[in-house]
Amino acid sequence: MSAEGHEHHSDFVPRRFLLAEFQTPEGLLAGTTKMREAGYTNLDTHSPFPIHGLEEALGLKRPKIPLIVLCGAIAGACIAYSLIYFCNVFDWPLNIGNRPPHGPPANIPITFELAVLLGGGSSFFGFFALSKLPQPYHPIFESEDFLRASVDAFFLSVELPAGTDVDRALADIRTAGALSGEIVEESER
Amino acid sequence: MAAPHPVVVSPDPLDPRPLIEGKQTDQTINDSLLEHVWRGAGKGWWALFGVALSALGLLVIAISYTLYKGIGSWGNNIPVGWAFGIINFVWWIGIGHAGTLISAILLLFQQKWRTSINRFSEAMTLFAVICALLFPLIHTGRPWFAAYWLFPYPSVQGIWPQFKSPLTWDVFAVSTYFTISLLFWFLGLVPDLAALRDSSQSKLKRTIYGMFAMGWRGSGRHWAEYKWAYVLLAGLSTPLVLSVHTIVSFDFATSVIPGWHTTIFPPYFVAGAVFSGFAMVMTWMIPARRFLGLKHVVTMKHLENMNKIMLVTGMFVTYGYVMEHFIAWYSGDPYEFAQFYFTRMHGPMRWIYRLMVFCNCVVPQIFWFKKWRTSIPVMWVAAIFINIGMWCERYNIVVTSLHRDFLPSKWENYLPTWVDLSLFAGTIGLFSTLFLLFLKFVPAVAVTEVKELRHELAHDPTADPVGETH
């Protein structure tokens, strides 16, 4: 990155994160609660597997996925049934042995399958959309230690707004039980 | 870093054997389960891969020949209008069902032992469904024209698929099944891909695994939604898997052919699917756990549980056979009676029927005995027998029912041609190729879930094993 580049993006303000490792998942949850109670916002935990109770520690609202899946499944069922109805009743009714063009029992399998397809699809794509993934770069990837977050380490990250007292934040996270604390900064790309 | 927990206890008072053997930490689990990905391909892998690729070549030749000559190159002809194509389709789809059972149904029933085998069986589901999908596609003879018969695509001819036909339901069922299985498998894989990304030694590997990991950073905010996305996909897959084989059985059950026209088909097909699927999981799992070093997470307890499921589903299948024969007699229908008591038992294809009864009804009974249920050679050979038996079952349903038509003047025998046999062998090659590639590039065990399980077992033996409930 050259000096000119810096001048060119002179309005770039890097995001800063406080990243701290905890010994155990339970310690991470306790530390998260303490930091949240100390007034820090934009907290996030990073762990190799989901920890029981992290929603409470992070103070998260109810997950949105179930509602998204319900809407997807209902939409799938409606699309399937109305498609079959349109084709069989309006667009191309076939008279076979004088049976009615609209045969509800025969429509059940496809209606069910499309409900599952769109419900499952909205679960998958809804999750990635809510999580803003794929996201190839995130400032916390700047930390070398963070490589262990997917293996066996438990981290807490706190996004620090501009003007935060960094030393105090580091002291606070020590008090909350962290093994270590470091400040990571977004790199200019 | 998490403190090591030396003793991993099982919460099941009836079966105190552990689900994870040895002193494990998150680090040792991570390293031991990713080791087979980082280790270079051995001679054994290349040898198997060579055989699988040759069989795949045979598949390419057989498909090309079928497309060039037409489906007249297959052995089926009136009265046996359906033969290898549908036998193999049903066989492969059935094999896929064990993967969904393990990954979805056992998750909902909170069976902790599923964790070590779910990734493996889900991959098997995907590859088996790919093999299955080939047959209905090729059997149309000109698959590129088939799109507008199969999917409601607004073509200029104004033709819609026949939505009242089970074959059209099948198209929707199987394509939904493949899509949902793929999404479920990939969603489970994302955290493991991040672990692969973060422990890779070369930049190229880091970039490739990083692309598939999609920037996963184990965020608690993500996990909170992830757990719901995962369990809801499981919840949707559970009725899906039952519906898929039910609809496959409708292909037969809605017709008037003696031997097909029965109401027991849906449950009996689903049980048979799970039965054959577990047999295929065993066929691959027994060598894989040895050669990939997975014995500490896929223990004898896992194998024994799978054998018990094969025993149970084998008896479901046996009950299905008994009921078919009973109803054939009880209905008083001479064609039904002739089909079950003469054609199948004493007709020219009686040896297929007898092999089916031996493999599916007699062989699983050895799993009543703990000595055989826990013997690796015995269970592997039994699994092979069950694979063969379930193929014979489909042959018996399709070909044996058709080759003795209502009018004796139409009776005809059936023999597959080299194209039929090559297509079947070729799909085994396709399946093996995909499976060997999977074992080489992706962790065969869900590393994240094993870490979570270890943590739960070590801390609280009565913990909620999936952690989905709040």
Question: What keyword list fits this structure?
Answer:
heterodimer; A: 189 residues; alpha+beta; Alpha-Beta Plaits; four-stranded antiparallel β-sheet; elongated; disordered N terminus; B: 470 residues; mainly alpha; Formate dehydrogenase/DMSO reductase fold; 16 helices; 0% strand; globular; disordered C terminus
What does this structure look like?
The complex is a heterodimer of chains A (189) and B (470). With 189 residues, chain A is an alpha+beta fold. Helix content of chain A is 47%, strand content 13%. Chain A has a 4-stranded antiparallel sheet, covered by helices on one side. The radius of gyration of chain A is 26 Å and the shape is elongated. The N and C termini of chain A lie close together (8 Å). Residues 1-5 of chain A have low confidence and may be disordered. Chain B has one domain (26-459): Formate dehydrogenase/DMSO reductase domain (Formate dehydrogenase/DMSO reductase fold), CATH 1.20.1630. Chains A and B meet through strand 2, helix 3, helix 4 and helix 5 of A and helix 1, helix 6, helix 8 and helix 16 of B.
- How would you sum up the global shape of chain A? elongated
Average pLDDT of chain A, to the nearest integer?
89
Radius of gyration of chain B, taken over Cα atoms and rounded to an integer in Å: 23 Å
Order of the strands making up the biggest sheet of chain A: 2-3-1-4
CATH topology of the largest domain in chain A: Alpha-Beta Plaits
Q: Largest interface, with Cβ-Cβ < 8 Å?
A: A-B, 69 and 68 residues
Query: Helix/strand-derived class of chain A?
Result: alpha+beta
Oligomeric composition of the shown chains: heterodimer
CATH overall fold name of chain B = Formate dehydrogenase/DMSO reductase fold
Mean pLDDT of chain B: 89
Residues in helix, % of chain B? 55-70%
Radius of gyration of chain A: 26 Å
Enumerate the spans of chain B where pLDDT stays under 50 for 5 or more consecutive residues.
1-7, 461-470
How many strands, which pairing sense, and closed or not: the largest β-sheet of chain B? none
Count of DSSP-assigned helices of chain A = 6
CATH A-level architecture of the largest domain in chain A: 2-Layer Sandwich
| Cα-to-Cα separation, first versus last residue of chain B | 26 Å
Level-2 CATH architecture of chain B: Up-down Bundle
Integer count of domains of chain B = 1
Whole-number total of structural domains of chain A: 2
Shape of chain B: globular
